[in-house]
Specification:
Layout lengths: L5 E4 L3 H16 L4 E3 L6 E5 L3 H11 L9 E2 L3 H7 L5 H10 L4 E6 L6 H4 L4 E5 L4 H10 L3 E2 L14 H8 L5 E4 L10 E4 L5 E5 L5 H7 L5 E3 L21 E5 L4 H8 L9 E5 L11 E4 L4 H17 L4 E5 L8 H11 L1
Parallel strand pairs: 1-8, 2-8, 4-6, 5-9, 10-11, 12-15, 13-14, 13-15
Antiparallel strand pairs: 2-3, 3-7, 4-7, 5-6, 9-10
Length: 336
């Protein structure tokens, strides 16, 4: 069924309040709303109503085994969503909330199976984006909200990205501007003695270790039931094939991709240090050398490559550094 999707902007204080009222009413009716957060745009519904959450899975064509993060507007609301609020959770919440970090804990009975993919844990996050915070407060219930894109595709960092994939699939899209962080939240599993980072993000393992000095922190991936989104091997992927490469110059890059037989005008190059001329390729883009700025720009650039009909995207390998862990994770999964 094709829906008549409303597109609403929050570009003034008056508009912000009007859109807030409309969006909260839409969510209370059990519908799905695309909302801005500081990481990426999300598809939100009432996290406590299975029928509402099911609409997210339908809109995204999302596999049932992929759990959804629950978004809250306070630590007390987070406590209501979990069976145990651990000491490590309290420490991380104090250090990084509101912000781009998700805490995985034993789920409360109020959280439906569809949210956790049948698992016994739930990921909770208190976002820092003002509209998302006010929306949750207005609804008075937590919001299940994965990224607002078709399953496995590039996550949206602007309302325009959402429209390109979700128009006609959901009831409402809220334009809250370009996202600040640009990639999804860091996800941390706090259910065992070891603190495990299930999905790297812009809050690094080093930063987490610094505030959890009494705990061992490691990057890991659970092999059983998924505890977090972002653990699938192929995820966050553009339509074009994506390769992460190192090259010395244009000739070196051409030699590395010659086997693909891709027409040059269908090759997009994303560089940050070794910049090649743009005369032979369909597009050459230069992203910032600083990790946070690079993350803000990455998904927008991948979406632009898809829009221009790229068949192959060559990304210059980012530094192998903790500040870049989240970016390297996304690029590895985008290449699948």
């Amino acid at each position: 069924m094709i829906l008549d999707t409303q597109y609403l902007k929050t570009d003034s204080e008056e508009a912000f309040n009007e859109v807030l009222a409309l969006a909260s009413a839409c969510l209370r009716e059990g519908n799905v709303v695309a909302v801005p957060t500081e990481t990426v745009y999300g598809l939100a519904s009432n996290a406590l109503e299975p029928a509402s959450v099911e609409k997210i899975f339908t809109a995204k064509n999302r596999p049932a085994e992929n759990p959804i993060i629950v978004h809250v507007a306070s630590e007390s609301m987070a406590c209501d969503c979990v069976a145990e609020w651990t000491k490590s959770a309290a420490i991380l919440a104090k250090a990084f909330w509101p912000g781009p970090i998700t805490l995985v804990l034993p789920r409360a009975k109020s959280i439906p199976d569809i949210v956790t993919a049948g698992g016994d844990t739930v990921g909770v996050r208190w976002p820092s984006h003002r509209f998302m915070q006010e929306l949750i407060k207005a609804c008075r219930f937590p919001l299940a909200a994965p990224s607002a894109n078709l399953s496995n595709h590039v996550s949206p960092t602007s309302a325009e990205h959402v429209v390109s994939q979700m128009d006609g699939r959901i009831e409402m899209i809220i334009d809250g501007g370009t996202t600040e962080v640009g990639i999804e939240s860091t996800v941390v599993d706090l259910t065992n003695e070891k603190v495990r980072v299930l999905r790297p993000g812009m809050i690094s393992v080093e930063a987490i270790s610094a505030v959890l000095s009494d705990y061992k922190v490691e990057i890991d991936s659970d092999k059983g039931i998924l505890k977090s989104p972002g653990q699938l091997k192929r995820h966050y992927a553009p339509n074009a094939r994506l390769l992460v490469l190192n090259w010395a110059d244009e000739e070196d890059l051409e030699g590395q991709i010659a086997y693909s037989r891709t027409p040059h005008d269908r090759v997009c190059v994303i560089a940050h240090t070794q910049i090649v001329p743009g005369t032979r390729f369909g597009r050459v883009s230069v992203l910032p050398r600083e990790a946070k700025a690079y993350a803000r720009a990455l998904y927008d650039e991948l979406c632009r490559c898809d829009k221009e009909g790229a068949e192959l995207i060559c990304v210059e390998a980012p530094p192998d550094d903790q500040d870049w862990d989240g970016i390297n994770d996304r690029l590895a999964r985008a290449g699948g």
